[in-house]
Amino acid sequence: MAERTRLRDLAPITVGIASLAAIAVVAELLLLAGVLNRYILPLPSDVLVALVRLVREEDILSRMGLTAFEVLTSGFLVILAGVPLGVLLYRFRLMRAALEDWLGALAAAPIVLAFPLFLVLFGRGPKTIIIISFVYGLAPVVLKTQEGLTATRRVHVNVGRSLNMTPAQMFWKILFPSALPTIFTGIRLSWTFCLVTVVAVEFLVNLGGLGHLINELAERYDMPGAYAAITFVILLSMGFFIVLERIQSWLQPER
Amino acid sequence: MSASAEPYLVIDNVLKRFGSGPEATVAVDHMSFDVKPGEFVSVIGPSGCGKSTLFNIIGGLLGDYEGEVRVGAERISGPHPSIGMVFQEESTFPWRSVIDNVAFPLELRGVPKAERHDRAHHFIDMVGLSGFAKHYPSQLSGGMKQRVSIARTLVSEPQILLMDEPFAALDEQTRLLLGDKILQIQQQLNQTTLLITHNLTEAVQLSDRIVVMTYRPGRLKRIVNIDLPRPRTSEVVGSDAFGHYVAEIWSDLREEASSGMMDAETTAARRNRPRG
User: How confident is the model at residue B276 (pLDDT cuts 50, 70, 90)?
Assistant: First the structure.
């Protein structure tokens, strides 16, 4: 019985990996047959070899570390600023009416293109990358925090009222835990925005971690290497998702 | 039940209006009745008669009303610690386990964890959920969740248990069985209880007295004493006396329920009137 449950738990990840492997095999065959252009899309087997090469020759781990540091710093700053801002938007109707649309617009704006302005303001360094990433990642956390708090079920609030809860108790014991899954959706979105922004700015200004490496490899026309570096970005993104999911299920199991 | 005792909960000439001026709607119109210690009273009326408004007034969630609701000698103008509310909608906290849901009111009062869990276990056992303390609401059925809500209310040991159609979303068989559980708990704790319901059989199965309300505005139509023997179980529904009470109250309610239905149909027709 336990064995069967374990197999059932492993099934999605096995199917996922098998699907990826199947796509890689199909791509390999199409490339070898000349249906796809090998100058644009490298052989998956070459990308696999390049993964090992990047670890040996391109100091990939410290580059990943730098990108991860920039994403985590901006990601945590986004949480620190975004959640309280979302609470303020929930609490003050005027503030919500005044700012909600602007924040929506901020989330949709291609802020990355304003990188020269940030470079002038903050210099050419990780600080600038973190600030651009923070600005881009802020809106989803603010909006989702506000949305989660607003969506708290009326009956839960009434339970709190019937128990004569103080406003602080109401917030920490009912509103916040009720909103937590939506807040985490906002954080996941934000961290994706942060990672994309960090890698994009690293790529554009030729500075720092994985984005810089992708740019360098592309300029050297090392396509397997560039795709392998992109694979490391995907691995980093998966790592963030897994960590966030673990934190959420630790905070609220069975939800 | 000690029917001769002084009333503990008094609803005295309560009137509640929504809105103002000519647009104002009277939801509850000069309602008066009382509940004595240990007594089980149900308020029954058709949908839209103001039962839930009355529930919110007695629970202290609607403060702006005329007349008086008194607990002992104290007028209610907000949630009162003597009154424990069970809501119609499912109200367990999905982020808390059963034990943490039930212990929630004690946690707010700063009761140490070991003690509050001991007390919560007692009420979890009482509502028949032994063995489910560590489960989460998502792992429970609708009836089990409502029992968690009832245990969460009872853990504060309120002097009055105030329930608003707690089994409305459940099927009839589950409702009858949970009625048994409520009767058992009420007898065990000698719990003063006020139940708001639109379900006739539920009201007769559980109550010592039934307060019948009219449809819009919600006025007191009649108070019916239910002289069915106690201790009572759901088997009582097969007795002649039970059928007699159901028929008697239905004859009172029928006219009100018809008015409610006609009103709903008129509103729907007005809303869906063809244009042009």
Answer: low
Distance from CA of A161 to the nearest CA of B (A): 7
Q: What pLDDT was estimated at residue B2?
A: 46
Q: How far is B85 from chain A (nearest CA, A)?
A: 7
What confidence score (pLDDT) does residue B187 get? 87
Any CB–CB contact under 8 A between A157 and chain B? no
pLDDT above 80 (res A211) = yes
Integer CA distances (angstroms), B113 to B27, B103, B118, in order: 43, 9, 9
Q: Is the pLDDT of residue A35 over 50?
A: yes
What does the domain layout of chain B look like in residue ranges? 1-82+158-242, 91-157
The architecture (CATH level 2) of B1-82+158-242 comes to: 3-Layer(aba) Sandwich (3.40)
Does residue B4 have a pLDDT over 60?
no
Length of chain B: 276
Position A83 scores a pLDDT of 97
Identify the top-confidence range among A40-44, A69-73, B199-203. A69-73
Q: What is the mean pLDDT of chain B?
A: 89
The 3-state DSSP class for residue B139 equals: helix
**Looking at this protein, which amino acid is placed at residue A168?**
A
Q: DSSP 3-state assignment of B8?
A: coil
Q: Which of A201, A53, A210 is nearest to A128 (CA)?
A: A201
What's the average model confidence in pLDDT over B253-257? 81
Q: Cβ A254–B138 below 8 Å, yes or no?
A: yes
> What is the distance between the terminal CA atoms of chain A, rounded to a whole angstrom?
24
Residue type for position B275: R
Q: What's the order of all strands across the beta sheet hosting B220-225?
A: B83-86, B160-164, B192-197, B40-44, B209-213, B220-225
- A-B CB pairs within 8 A amount to 54
Identify which of B79, B91, B107 has the shortest CB distance to residue A155.
B91
Token representation of residue A110: 């291609």
Residue type, B18: F
Chain position carrying tokens 């009582």: B236
A212 close to A202: Cβ distance less than 8 angstroms: yes
Nearest neighbour of A158 by CB, restricted to B61, B81, B93: B61
Partner B contacted by A176 (CB < 8 A): no
**What domains appear along chain A, each with residue ranges and CATH number?**
1-41 (no CATH), 43-251 (1.10.3720.10)
Give me the residue from B81, B90, B95 closest to A255, CB to CB.
B95
**ipTM of the modeled complex:** 0.88
CB contact under 8 A, A173 and B108: yes
A152–chain B nearest CA distance, Å: 11
Contacts of A169 in chain B (CB under 8 A): 108
Helix, strand, or coil (residue B194): strand
Lowest mean pLDDT among A66-80, A136-150, A205-219: A205-219
